[in-house]
Amino acid sequence: MPKPKRGKQKKFGNLSHSDRLDENRMDDRQIVDREQLRTRSNRWRERVNEDELAREYNPADWTEYPLGTVLSMLSGHHYIRLEMTGEVIDAGVRGVLKHGIQNTTTVVAPGDRVHIEPLEDGAGSIVAIVPRKTTLSRPDPMRSHLEDVIVANVDQVIIVSSVGGPAFWPELVDRYLVFAGYYELEPLIVINKVDQAVPGELEDIRALYDEQLGYRVLFASAEKSVGVEALREAVKGHSNVIVGLSGVGKSSLLNAIQPGLNLRVQSVNETYGGEGKHTTRMTTLHPLGMGGFVADTPGIREFGLWDLTPEEVDYYFVEFRPYLGMCKFADCTHHHEPGCALLAAVEEGAIAGSRFESFQILQNETDPAHERPY
Fold first, then answer.
1. Dihedral of the CA atoms 129, 130, 135, 137 (nearest 10)?
2. Of 235, 265, 296, which closes a domain?
């Protein structure tokens, strides 16, 4: 929900000049119908029906156009790696592909497989997009009713956190795990900078996320070359996306598993709790020498969950599932109701308090009545 602008507001400023009314002359007969105002103010959101214009993708229709994968995008330029030659070319998007767009700001995203029409100057034009298998999305930062696709066609999410600086942040890890479950992506939790861990910290993380919840957890240190070979083996042959807070060492880990990437690395700022600056400025797909791709994304401090309702959030906390449907009230929100099975499980220690706190935060954020934090 957009925040109202500060300061004095001009009444009906969204109307055309001819429709504006002098508030000094307004009387009951001149009051503009609220629904009329709402319609005019929302006109910019109108789109044509994409179902009417969408063309079903048939590979046989595009055999004469080379197939490639979008590696990155910047200011209207799409850098495509052609599958047959490995050549990377700069391509624009054919205008017809933008027709019918209704719910997204992203016509083409990193990770998309696209057909290219080569141009005489060595560049290209994207003429068709292969339907996406998966997407990593968030609500657009400026227009939260629209989907912003961060990367497409990944099958594994590498969730990187750290100990020391920045400190381990369970709520962000839990939020990525919910996303992975919702979009049926395989998650791998990587804890970096293990050489900075305090006694017992790594054991607690393993006990909760590995032993209790059943997620894969890998401990690593890019600086000390710990866990690098295990991570290289885990990403081999997959279309991966690596996510996590700025400063946890995502770029350092990628440099370690793929020599020659030379991704920019910057030290964290200890003054502000060890958080890093955003050294990754845009999502970029990197082909891996051992097979597959890895997408490096900008550090996301507040990761939004696209198209997830409050009623669905509890299912994606895997340890909650045995208790769902066991509450006294069918519409239990698991916040304060008597007879709530989840609250009872937290009190008994069957559900970790940190996980339940993450659930409540995410449930509030997915509620349309609450403003999203970005």
1. 10
2. 296
* 95 within some domain: yes
Q: What element of type H or E holds 309?
A: none
Query: What pLDDT digit, counting tens, does each position of 304-333 carry?
Result: 565 678 888 999 999 999 999 999 999 898
Total tally of structural domains belonging to the chain: 3
- How far lies 88's CA from each of 62, 281, 315, in Å? 20, 20, 42
User: Can you give the residue range of the structural domain that contains 80?
Assistant: 53-131
Q: What is the DSSP string of 88-110?
A: EEEEEE-GGGGTT--SBS-SS-T
Tell me the whole-structure pTM to 2 decimals. 0.75
CATH of residue 65's domain is 2.40.50.140
Q: Which amino acid is at 154?
A: V
Can you tell me the distance from the alpha carbon of 54 to that of 104, in angstroms, rounded to the nearest whole number? 14
Residue 292 and residue 316 share a domain: no
Question: Helices 353-366 and 170-182 sit at what angle, rounded to 10 degrees?
Answer: 60
Which residue bears the tokens 């719910």?
A: 103
